[in-house]
Amino acid sequence: IHYCMNRSIEYNDYPPRAGPHRPIWPVYGEYTYCPPQRWIHTMEHGSAVFLHHPCADPEQVALLRDVAASCIHRRIFTPYRGMPEDRPFAVVTYGCRLSMSFVDVPAIKNYIRRFAINPNFATETGVYRNGQYTKGLISRANIVSDEQDSELCPEVIIIVRIC
């Protein structure tokens, strides 16, 4: 359900996993702040939203940022004040949510592989292009496997040749 700016949107679930949202979705990337009314639309397209409380441990925030950047192109990374202090981190996909007290890298990767870009949950997974909303955009998301995210959280193998 798309609501234009002349209509307010409220959620009963925090952070929200679905619901009404704005028709223009954000460019994939990191934001100083991206409102849920925007990032919910990206979740319809199969994206993952990485949230952290603004007062969370900066080292854990950096780790969450690194995991996000290594797992999926279709992502939003933003602070979110609605995170409880005892679980200041979350990864949200359409209809699902992983909340954490610390950044659990294996759990995040398993969650992304299971729920991101999953047509059983997201309704428009074939829409992988960026949106147009850029307010608060710090940096655009890099491509991880390819533009369509055909491989989620790929394992990096480094081959060293000694001659």
Automatic annotation (TrEMBL):
Q: Which domain of life is it from?
A: Eukaryota
**An annotated GO cellular component:** cytoplasm
Q: Which PANTHER family match?
A: TUMOR PROTEIN P53-INDUCIBLE PROTEIN 13
From the Swiss-Prot or TrEMBL record, give the protein name: Uncharacterized protein
> Which organism is this protein's natural source?
Capitella teleta (Polychaete worm)
